[in-house]
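Pasting as-is:
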Amino acid sequence: MAQILSADGPVLMLFEQLLELRGTIDELFDGKVVVVRNNLFLDSEGVPSPVDPELLNDFESSFDDMTPDTTGLSKYYAKSVKVGSAHLVTPIIPDEFSEWEVVDLFDRASFALGDASAISEGVVPVSSTAFLEYRLGLLNGTAGPASVLVNARELEGYRSALEAVASVAHALGLSVSFVVQQDQEEKVEESGRLLPVLQHYWGKEASFRKLRFYKNPDFDNEMETVSQGAISEFVVKQAEAAHAGSVDYRNVFVTAPTGAGKSILFQIPALYLARKYQLVTLVIEPLKALMIDQVANLRKRGVKNVVAINSDIPYGERLESLDRVKSGEASIIYLSPELLLESSVQAILNGRELGLVVIDEVHTVTSWGKDFRPDYWYLGPYLSKLRKNGMSFPIFCLTATAVYGGRDDVVSHTIADLELGNCKTFLGNPRRNDISFDIVWRSKSELPGPIEEVKTDLAEQWIDKAVRDNRHAIVYGTVKILSQIDLAVSGPVLF
């Protein structure tokens, strides 16, 4: 601090030291703050740390064991991951960060992509620990020539790191080639075995809806049609492979517009896996209201083997639900990420085998995880740890609001945050062509009375009409206004 106050020129410090000054830096220093980012690594991967490796080991152990941190590092880092003999840490980002200038540590260099014939050195797949180790080797001088293997769908997400690798390798005189690998996608189609499940609960005339997805989103906007049944079938096959002990199964990521029937995509596999293999499906939902709504709708359809577990449910009811899971009466469990991480998954499963993990509204992992819902930030490492400890299950992610490609690539960032690897993606256009906006301007001169009372009256009238017309409706308003609403009709209104 004294150095900052007395300095008449640039002051160099570690980011950890800067974090010590969060909240006060503007009072101590009226100059510009510049953060130098190690752009060899993606934000979701973390960066090397100057902290003693033994201390980082202890910090990581406290995270893995869900025990209190005794190292003091939790005020600097959100998480730490061991890579070989080193660690990559995710720094905590202070509120002032948006006001600071961020520059790259390394220059970026363009690189040419070759095909398999360009492989001349040891192969380093981009989505592997080997690529993390290789970049650490570039920093400590132990890296050698390499051929970096890039899947076509990983290219945009890793481009900044690949450009930094190309620049550093050139400066060091290392021969590094970049090889693009096209996916050999297995065919996604219905077998017919899931239709009886759909018709048993959704009616004898029910059929799987056709959905539209981008055929090759990395190259063009051509669309193709894939049925709900085909996607559900693909998910079931991955769960069956994991159940059989194979390591050759894939995670799945789906983006589709609201109203496309995304819930069917995981509910049908969950019902089938429970019926045929007695496997448990965990459905992680960010919103309790959504969780309760989905469970209620399933029970209306006659689904009896579903339970919801969250902090609003009385403790006795939660124990009863866990007993139902243990006895095999319940195999589909809706729960929040906080409850999953706070509990022992073994205690939730009660000796049952986990067959599938579903993460609904998965965009919240990236958009909420660092600040609003920190448990989402830890979800990926937590699930990876379960797999490392012997569990075998695919992860099925769904969302309606995740952008793919470009600067705000939520899809690629979320896949990296959840450590999904080269997962199967079904990327649809979230635009809803059947939604229109009707904006009504109201003049205060036409509506006498205090403005707060006018707003409350208008909201009451609008909600009453929506309930009478049996229409779904969402009302946004302040807590003060919504708490004063007195509905004239009874109906399914949830605040």
